[in-house]
Amino acid sequence: MSTAAAETVVVGLGDRAYDILIGPGLLAGAGALVADRFPGARVAIVTDTNVARHHLPALTASLDAAGVGHATVTVEPGEKTKGFAGLEQAVDAVLAARMERGDLVLALGGGVVGDLAGFAAAVVRRGMRFVQVPTTLLAQVDSSVGGKTGINSRHGKNLVGSFHQPRLVLIDTNVLDTLPAREMRAGYAEVAKYGLIDRPDFFGWLEKSWRDVFAGGAARIRAVAESCRAKAQIVARDEFETGDRALLNLGHTFGHALEAATGYDGARLVHGEGVAIGMALAHRFSARMNLASHDDAARVEAHLRDVGLPWRLSDVPGGLPGADRLLEFIAQDKKVKRGALTFILTKGVGRAFVAGDVPASEVVLFLKEQLP
Amino acid sequence: MSTAAAETVVVGLGDRAYDILIGPGLLAGAGALVADRFPGARVAIVTDTNVARHHLPALTASLDAAGVGHATVTVEPGEKTKGFAGLEQAVDAVLAARMERGDLVLALGGGVVGDLAGFAAAVVRRGMRFVQVPTTLLAQVDSSVGGKTGINSRHGKNLVGSFHQPRLVLIDTNVLDTLPAREMRAGYAEVAKYGLIDRPDFFGWLEKSWRDVFAGGAARIRAVAESCRAKAQIVARDEFETGDRALLNLGHTFGHALEAATGYDGARLVHGEGVAIGMALAHRFSARMNLASHDDAARVEAHLRDVGLPWRLSDVPGGLPGADRLLEFIAQDKKVKRGALTFILTKGVGRAFVAGDVPASEVVLFLKEQLP
């Protein structure tokens, strides 16, 4: 049972600042950490049936050992849980467990559980304290920083929610050992993204060390910590997403369009895979616009291919619609202002920027070239 | 069509500060005010069928005249609308109208509409701008200040919600002319409350001028403005209700217990009536505890009686349970810590304070004396 974190990342948001503790085996120390940091608080755990099977016993044992009272809400895994019905279920269960404002909602799971539990924490009694224990690589390096919580509506994904910062994030890097390989790779796409946005040295290190990151140990801890630090720096500059935070969408405009074009069918394409292809396309498109070199685009493609991630449109199983239809999916995601789109483009590895005036016609031409 | 407010109350909450504009006929000037203060924004109106009949045409005509785009969500009147189903309906309608984060949700109605619309504004796209046009006296002097929004859960009232401050509140004092007399009186109980908390001169003025407040005109504007100012001062000291804001609960502990004991049946007792009896009881109980004079208690009772408000337990139609059962309702509302209750008591008119150590046994004895 370890409560010593190998790395601590401080998310500097003034009076909403919080620590991300990262290390192997932290789950077993969760009870002691909660008892130490939130004396007297009880814990409402929100998790899903898959994660509960792997990790809930270790968490509850640790809370019991530290004398921390707890109750558990177990939801169905999958995106469908992230709706009004799931929210009502989570909120009702937290209230049924007689949790007060000073008590904690603890998310044990991946992105769906984190978004849902965080939103429930934001609205029960107009705001309970929130702790995250992310159990996927994607959730560890993405959802654990930034305070975005929410659910989907029939009108689109993540359209209903709150900004509600956690009070503490515990990242146990060992829990990734039970993650399916494909999900691990998909999360890794977001790790690589931080290098590509503004950390060229980190990207260079990943090119050499990605096998160690997948294997576990010190390299994995370093990759997770560096990713959290990178995102924390951007979020601290722009908590409510009015400017720079858009950089985090590198690869996401193309990526979301591919997710939509494949009907959000995870069997064909999961989010991180869409982001991987999207990042490769963003670099190739930037090269085509004479913003970045073709060598840089090839370097990004090579790394994603090495890791086993899809990186080109022909990697999407089951085929894709034509370029014009893909542009419609892009336009649904972003507002098209007088034929111009906002994209995250790049001047090279680690030199991404927000481009607010990308001609839709250029994007269509480019997609036509890229389609198999 | 008037856009000149007779009174402006600034709610001083730093970067969440906003104006409350108060005056006769402001509804007809709403469009011009919105166009001036939120250029380019569209408006999602949330209202109920009753209020829509009286006031929606004037509001939409005013928005049309000012060239402000708008859509309307009309919900059923009544407390039942303030639940998860009502929230989903409001949120879906706002999204269906393709409102963006910079657009406005505008609540046209009483407390239920304001709480629901404000919560929808808080969560659609993780926060839209919110404007309130309260159409009951209670909503004008209570809900328009403080930023509390929310819905009920099966576990209790207002247990799910957000703190989400409006950007602007427009109080048209003329709309109260269509309010049923009983609802006007119930709202007046909260007006009197501000005098009793810490504004003895205001209470003295109300004792002389309450007929003018009910009649309309300058006295009504003054009463509404002074009430908003009083609440704004307390809220600015304690936005998130960790201390002084509890003073606003004067009369509410007894009042909530009476609402619960009458099954929240508005035919028997509405919220403001419960508060009226609760305030009279809080003063009488304070006198019994030798904190205030019996003359002050009698003065409060006399004023409520003059206005036509209920002021004693025997005024509740249909009878009440015994003192022990009433204490159970009180204890449901407040946490009982080792036999002691938190109450708002008083040293006299305008001298209320938070008492954290009121013996439950004294409350039961007192209720036994007061029951008919």
Please describe what this structure looks like.
The structure is a homodimer of 372-residue chains. With 372 residues, chain A is α/β, with parallel strands linked by helices. Chain A has two domains: 3-178, Rossmann fold (3-Layer(aba) Sandwich); 209-370, Dehydroquinate synthase-like - alpha domain (Dehydroquinate synthase-like, alpha domain). The first copy, chain A, contains 13 helices and eleven strands. Chain A has helices spanning 30-37, 49-65, 84-96, 111-123, 137-143, 181-198, 200-215, 218-237, 252-261, 271-288, 294-307, 323-333, 360-370; strands spanning 7-11, 18-23, 43-48, 70-75, 104-109, 129-134, 148-153, 156-163, 168-172, 340-346, 352-359. In chain A, the strands form three sheets. Chain A has a seven-stranded mixed sheet with strand order 1-2-9-6-5-3-4, sandwiched between helices. In chain A, helix 5 (137-143) runs parallel beside helix 8. The longest helix of chain A has 20 residues, at 218-237. The radius of gyration of chain A is 20 Å and the shape is globular. The termini of chain A are far apart. The relative contact order of chain A is 0.10. The model of chain A has no long low-confidence stretch (mean pLDDT 94). Chain A binds chain B through residues 84, 87-88, 91-92, 95-96, 119, 122-127, 148, 150, 153-156, 159-163, 240, and chain B through 84, 87-88, 91-92, 95-96, 119, 122-127, 148, 150, 153-156, 159-163, 240.
